[in-house]
Every structure is written in structure tokens, then in C-alpha cells.
Specification:
- By secondary structure, the chain is α/β, with parallel strands linked by helices.
- It contains seven helices and seven strands.
- The structure holds S-adenosylmethionine.
- S-adenosylmethionine binds next to helix 1.
């Protein structure tokens, strides 16, 4: 990681993704989960406090040491045990079928090999387990899509590899996840290229 990605980016992400206004969406995203879950791209821990009481433990996957350090107070305040269990969603250090569910918020845009990460999540989640997601992605409207394609290289450079143009439902389908619910909408107060949200969950067919 370079200086920007290492020292600055986690703070930028906190400003763009960490607002209190996101808590309602985060709570909705986490609601379908229960039992032991793996959370990819844990970041600074903004989902802590939004997990439902049915969640019993969280295995956090996060490459950034700074983000993990900045999550410390939230992790310490959680009544649900949370441990940093890995660094890369593309290669998870767990046996098959280790988890009851998985969570990703604003991370499927960033993981370089998304197909590998979604396959890994399928491998480590039990058959019938849920992958809950809250993600921005390719907008439904072609005019917004055109702008997203135009600025994607800049977004990638400033956003740690974040892509605006990933078709999240198509990626989930292609990786074999069965989408059960997906609410697609533009988030309030954020320009459309960055707020074409997908909020829902998919089931691991086994
Ligand atoms: C935009 S942030 C979202 C953080 C957090 N999920 C949230 O909702 O606030 C994307 C996160 O994905 C992490 N990330 C990047 N590459 C990753 C990878 N290969 N595996 C797991 N996480 C990754 C980044 O370090 C960053 O914390």
C-alpha cells in the first residue's frame, strides 16, 4: 500500500461511508443475519451496533491496519465478539461451511477479484446461509451509467480501487448466489453516480 491508501484513504472512507445517516440502511442490511458471520471489508467498523441480536460472532476481514485500529473503540463496545480473522476477501482462511452468514457493505465495489471473493464467501458459508449486502454499483439509468463509466478511472485512483460500474446483482448471480431480496434505489443526499444502491440478501445454494 502507498502512503495515500495506507494513511489517508481509511479516513476518507469514514467521511463518505460513515455518516450517521447511513445507520438506518446499515441496520436494514444486517437484519437478515444470525449466528456466526464473516464480514468482508470491515473497515472502521461502522456496522458494529447495527447487527441484530441474533448475530453471535463476527469474523472481520480487513486489509487496512489503520481502519482496524480506528475500529477499536467500536469493537471494544460491542456485546458481540468480533475478531480480525483475515486480510483478504479473495482468499479466506477458513474451512468450508464455517459460517451461518456473511456481510458486505460498500466493499464489493473495491475487492479487485470480485468473482474470487464471492466464490470464497460461497465456500465458507453453510448451504442455506445468507450473504447480506449494502452496495453501490452500476446505476439503472443509462445517462447515469455513462457518467459512471467516464469517471470510473478517477474513482478507482482516489477510492482505493473502488469501481462505480460493477453490476452487483449480476456479479452475485454469476458467482452462484441466489438473490432473495434486493431493494435498488438512489440514496438520499448523495449524487446518483455514487448512490445507486443495492440493499438485500442472497442465499448460498450449497
Ligand atoms: C469503502 S470501504 C467500506 C468499509 C465498511 N464495509 C463500511 O461499510 O464502512 C471498503 C473496504 O474494503 C476493504 N478492502 C479492500 N480490498 C479488500 C479485500 N481484498 N478483501 C477485503 N476487504 C478489502 C478496504 O480496506 C475498505 O475497508
Amino acid at each position: 500500500m502507498g502512503f495515500y491508501d495506507d494513511r489517508i484513504l481509511p479516513r476518507v472512507i469514514e467521511v463518505t461511508c460513515g455518516g450517521r445517516g447511513m445507520d438506518g440502511l446499515r441496520r436494514r442490511a444486517c437484519a437478515p443475519l444470525s449466528g456466526a458471520i464473516v464480514e468482508v471489508g470491515f473497515g472502521s467498523g461502522f456496522n458494529v451496533g447495527n447487527y441484530p441480536p441474533e448475530v453471535t460472532s463476527v469474523a472481520a476481514i480487513e486489509p487496512s491496519d489503520l481502519a482496524w485500529r480506528r475500529a477499536a473503540a467500536r469493537v471494544a463496545s460491542s456485546s458481540i465478539p468480533i475478531e480480525r480473522a483475515g486480510l483478504d476477501g479473495q482468499r479466506l482462511p477458513f474451512d468450508d461451511h464455517s459460517f451461518d452468514g456473511a456481510l458486505s457493505t460498500f466493499t464489493l465495489c473495491t475487492i479487485p477479484d470480485l468473482s474470487a471473493a464471492l466464490s470464497e464467501l460461497r465456500r465458507v458459508v453453510k448451504p442455506g446461509g445468507r450473504l447480506a449486502f449494502l452496495e453501490h454499483g452500476l446505476a439503472p439509468s443509462t445517462s447515469v451509467q455513462r457518467f459512471q463509466h467516464l469517471i470510473d478511472p478517477v474513482e478507482g485512483a482516489l477510492g482505493g480501487g473502488c469501481r462505480l460500474t460493477r453490476d452487483i446483482p449480476a456479479e452475485l448471480d454469476a458467482a452462484g448466489w441466489r438473490i432473495v431480496e434486493n431493494d435498488r434505489f438512489y440514496g438520499k443526499g448523495v449524487p446518483k453516480p455514487w448512490s445507486a444502491f443495492n440493499l438485500g440478501y442472497a442465499v448460498c445454494p450449497g
